[in-house]
Every structure is written in C-alpha cells, then in structure tokens.
Amino acid sequence: MLPEIAFxxxxxxxxxxxxxxxxxxxxxxxxxxxxxxxxxxxxxRLPTFYMVDLPGYGFAHANKGMRAGYRKLVEGYLTKRxxxxxxxxxxxxxxxxxxxxxxxxxxxxxxxxxALVVLTKADKLGRQQQRSQTxxxxxxxxxxxxxLQPVSSVEGMGIAELGDSIKAAVAAx
Length: 173
Ligand SMILES: Nc1nc2c(ncn2[C@@H]2O[C@H](COP(=O)(O)OP(=O)(O)O)[C@@H](O)[C@H]2O)c(=O)[nH]1
Ligand SMILES: [Mg+2]
Prior knowledge:
Elements: E1 4-9, H1 15-23, E2 42-45, E3 50-53, H2 68-80, E4 84-92, H3 99-111, E5 115-120, H4 127-141, E6 148-150, H5 159-171
Parallel strand pairs: 1-3, 1-4, 4-5, 5-6
Antiparallel strand pairs: 2-3
Helix pairs in contact: 2-3
C-alpha cells in the first residue's frame, strides 16, 4: 500500500490551492468560492504516495465546535490509518487559531502523527506582519516559530520547501 500524507484545516484556509501548487496541476483540487462544500475525502495519486484531502472543519458549525460525525471521521482516520505517514495542517497566517483549530490540535496530538504546520496566504501580509503573525500563532499553539512554515499558493513562496518536507515524511518509517 502506498503511504499517505493528509491535508487538513479550516474550510477556505487554502487547502485545494496548496494541493494544486504542490503538484503543479491547476485543476486537480477544486478551489472554491463557496466554503465548506467538500464533505468527503479526496485522494490524489502521486508516483510514490497519496495526498489525502480531508474535509475542512469549522465553517457552518464554528460556534458549536466540531460536529460529532466529522470529529469521528477525522479521529478514526488519524488514529487507524496504518499507511498515514504525516499530516499537513493548514492555518491562515492572518488569523489567531480558532476554537476548531485548537480542537483539531488536540486530535492531532492524541494521534501522535508527525505534523507539518503551514501558514497559508502569506502573500496577503507584508514581511513584518508575516513575522509578527507567525510569532503570535506559535505562541497560541505552544509551538516554536521555526516549526511554522509560511506559504503562498499565489506567489509560490515556501512551496518547494514544503514539498521537500513532505517527501522526507513519506520516506520516514
Ligand atoms: N491571496 C491568496 N489567496 C489564496 C491562497 N490560497 C487560497 N487562496 C484563496 O482562498 C480561497 C479558498 O481557497 P481554497 O483553496 O478553495 O480553500 P479550501 O476551502 O481550504 O480548499 C479562494 O478564494 C482562493 O483563491 C494564497 O496563497 N494566497
Ligand atoms: Mg477545498
């Protein structure tokens, strides 16, 4: 069975755009103007692994926390999937982590899966703001600034580096 790398984040965080940037295939994952539409898993086959597009969380149910069904799906996938090698967790660089982001962080920690944390839409901020937001988000998550990778699917910033990190995660046992 081919290894898998899963991508997850809040609806509209830029997940489909990132999948397209990473693969260099524009129409691969549908970029949506209507957030929260995709409710199933999409698998994208690359030569040596699958990229798994997990449904985005926390749009329609932002105030109620994660729906039980959704939570179960994600928790089950994270804990039981033997071919899962790592998770790419997306956060919008402009925003403090939401309640749902923090709830997902708990699920991720409980699963013990290696994670790459990326900050999307970096092009929307200037250099200084990128640094200060990276610092603020790191603090909110209890992570180091260095462990957060700013990316931009529009400008291509950080995409090659993320691709390398993903390849390393796929290769790791
Ligand atoms: N400026 C900018 N906009 C982005 C970027 N990535 C995604 N977007 C926009 O954010 C919206 C949601 O993107 P999408 O990839 O569909 O997010 P998803 O719901 O997480 O799959 C769309 O309008 C995208 O054009 C980025 O790196 N920079
Ligand atoms: Mg999407």
